[in-house]
Specification:
heterodimer; A: mainly alpha; 0% strand; B: 248 residues; Rossmann fold; five-stranded parallel β-sheet; 11 helices; disordered C terminus
Chain lengths: 394, 248
Amino acid sequence: MPVPAAPAVTAVAVPSTRDLRLDLFRGIALWLIFLDHIPSNIVSWITIRNYGFSDAAEMFVFISGYTAAFVYGRAMRERGFVVAGARILKRAWQVYVAHVFLFVIYLAEIAYVSKNFESSLYAEEWNIFDFLKQPDVTLVQALMLKFKPVNMDVLPLYIVLLVGFPAVLWLLLRRPALALAASAALYALARTFEWNFPAYPSGEWVFNPLAWQLLFVIGGWCGVGGADRISGLIRSRIVTAFAVAYLVFAFVIVMTWYFPRYGYLVPHWLGELIYPIDKANLDVMRLVHFLALAVLAVRFVPPGWPALELPVFRPAILCGQHSLEIFCLGVFLAFAGHFIRVELSGGPLLQLLISITGIGVMIGVAWLLRWYQALEGRGPAKRSRNADFAGGDV
Amino acid sequence: MKAFPILLAALAPLSPALAENDACELGRPLISAEAALPRAAAAVAERHSLNVIVLGSGSSTLPAPTGERAAYPARLEAALGKFLPGVDAKVVTKIKARQTAAEMMEQELQRIEEQKPALVIWQTGTVDAIKGVDPEEFRDTLDQGVAMLQGDGVDVVLMNMQYSPRTDAMISITAYTDNMRWVALQHDVPLFDRLALMKHWSELGTFDLYDASKNTDTAERVHDCIGKLLAGLIAGAVKQPAPAAETR
């Protein structure tokens, strides 16, 4: 349903106009993440991870870095390090609370499922419920962000990125190039020496913050003016040609995964070079793939593109503007969708129904959130509300 | 809640009552037909024997009372006897529940090497995924294990996880399946893709894998099919390039 744009958002001075493209792509990323989180979902065939190396997670982290730098950067310039830093940390706290809330819902579902599970075929898989037997350890490890059930890895990453962000932003505003270089150096070091955060019961974080921070900082660098500096480069023919070539290359490689009989077409030396593509540590292949996508997106969707105001894009933009809430909702809906599917032993038709309904619910809730915001809009100062609204949402 | 049966009828995949063999056959397209097991083939050609060891965790067996007799290793032995007449095919199991790949490597692999089988079926992945073992470590373990066995003249078939729709949302297996596929490619080892196979059966409605009850019938039939298809893969790979008349 089309909603008039909130005046508080569009009425800001020109250099700080909200870039609707960010909201649009973030909204789309949220939908894709939802679809990917429903296990064995046939509808997830449409998501980008099936056609290249990177997936919606990259879009999400990059755009989050961009918006966080954009919003809190302005706050830091105007009101100083302490105020902006405090607001970033407050945001980190909100994300933490959201994560714990999701964890509780997850626990409830898993505890319910485990009660009626006696299949002899799956005696082995049943061990996944072991952690319910020792809630003392499980809960503490979860609160420490070490125990993270499936699909609950993105928010912890985001919490860590936000906690480190005040210092990063401080540097980004003074010496952006230095900040970028430091971030790249940390990325290289973490990958070389295999630094990562420990997880429980074993292993390490699925999204290594020490590697993924690079994408967040690249986003932040673009958000504080870097994007303008390299706009000429992005629009150059050579860069575009390279981006297209790389995307085609990635597409061909990925297709050999789905049709293994053509696997032999990938020369051995090339396989040696590119495999395995390591998601945990943001493989270079993935990073470049995302940047290539971003280059094309920037080139073909110009800022202030009039079509962005069209009603078709409205739902995605709305979702992108409330990303923390909609992200959490998406994780919950994916659990719930899977639960329904299992209870009904449903087939592809049910999956399709769940996928469409889920996205519909996400749009509905985003619209509702916007409505609440408009209600409350009369009270607090415009600017701070606007910042929170744009702000560092996941 | 009264609407459930109706919904179910409308949305559940069609599940025609299939004869058991047809059910197994439905999975055949997912089994690699060009697998090569040169070391096992040599044993068959020279000694007319095929000693197979199944190294695995809980999903390579079935809990009592169904037990080992109905699990796929026993079914594999029976099917090999049929597919390879005149060959003395034996299947021995080294199965321990809750064992990660690294634990199998540490505790079993040495002993297996001493027994000099022609072929090891290495079923793994589930426990590592449940315990959240670092996927890179998992890959390194498999990589070393397969290299060790091959170095000793033993062929390997890797078998990945079961498809388990109920716990699908709770165990993150992609990183582990990808790594198994990668190791298999690297060492020219056939991968018996149990995950894709069972998913296929589930989608076709061949077996109701959503069933959470104690019903052992489905479990037995699934294991029977896995044993038969695995035997088909092995028999195809060890046969001399003579006329392939044996294919059913």
